[in-house]
Amino acid sequence: GSLGKIADGIFHKGMGRMMIPGNTEQHELVQHNYIPHVECVKLTPDQKFLCAVDSGLDHTKVYRVDYEKGKLKLTHIIRGGMQSAPRMIRFSLDGKYAYILYEMANVIEVYRYDGRKNVPVFEKIQTISTMAEGDSYICAASGLEVSPSGNYLYCSNSGINSVVCYEINKETGMLTVVFNTRVNSDYPKVIAILPDDEHYLTLNNVSNAIMVYKAEYEKKYSLWKGKPIKLDKPNCISIMKLSQ
């Protein structure tokens, strides 16, 4: 059960987004956002390809996995818009659709996925905002998760501190907003949905706490429940349903 030696290593290179010349303050604050850096890696549901979401390059690079040789080979690139900063990728439960969250563009792109051939196919079918009408543009789309039932996709927005719930059309994979709620959470960097499909958590990187909310799908909002769980800069969480 122990780990063996590293089988392969991929290093992203190249120039990222352009910075404003001479703006020293901006260079110090966001320099790491302008060089290649992978925010998220995710295997496709068929386990054939590895998706590496690179925020600095505005690309999601897709590698074919050779399980016999333990090697990765670049086969496809999903190119986001300039300064869009892709952050996460998630797939529908049936494996037919992919959702990519863009941190600076504050949008989710929906793709139809087909991995039956040696080269994966990602066909973009929708772009939808993570912000409500009238929201401030001081916003960074941060967390993205599909609910355990596969019926909903959740997104958290830092800056404006909101959570958006989208209904997933099982036939088309496309998204429709169910609710967009301001939350009592400062910088909800990560979001997670509990197994009951009705409660979600925000991991808040500034207020140093995990908060619990109850989703009211019919009433189209969510409500804060319980007390904050104090934790210094929570950044990741895994939820496992225990057997009875």
What topology does this entry show?
Layout: H1 24-30, E1 38-43, E2 49-54, E3 59-66, E4 71-79, E5 86-91, E6 97-102, E7 107-114, E8 121-129, E9 140-146, E10 152-158, E11 162-168, E12 175-182, E13 188-193, E14 199-204, E15 209-216, E16 221-230
Antiparallel strand pairs: 1-2, 2-3, 3-4, 5-6, 6-7, 7-8, 9-10, 10-11, 11-12, 13-14, 14-15, 15-16
Strand content: over 45%
Assembly type of the chains comes to single chain
**Morphology call:** globular
Q: Low-confidence parts lasting 5 or more residues at pLDDT below 50?
A: 23-29
- As laid out across the biggest beta sheet, the strand order is 1-2-3-4
**Alpha plus pi helix count:** 1
Q: Biggest β-sheet, characterized?
A: 4 strands, antiparallel
SS elements, strand count: 16
Overall mean confidence score, pLDDT: 91
Helix content percent band: under 10%
Computed Rg? 18 Å
Give me a quick take on this structure.
With 244 residues, this protein is an all-beta fold. The protein has one helix spanning 24-30, and strands at residues 38-43, 49-54, 59-66, 71-79, 86-91, 97-102, 107-114, 121-129, 140-146, 152-158, 162-168, 175-182, 188-193, 199-204, 209-216, 221-230. The protein is 3% helix and 48% strand.
Structure, explained:
By secondary structure, this protein is mostly beta strands. Helix content is 3%, strand content 48%. It is built from one helix and 16 strands. A hairpin with a 5-residue loop joins strand 9 (140-146) and strand 10 (152-158).
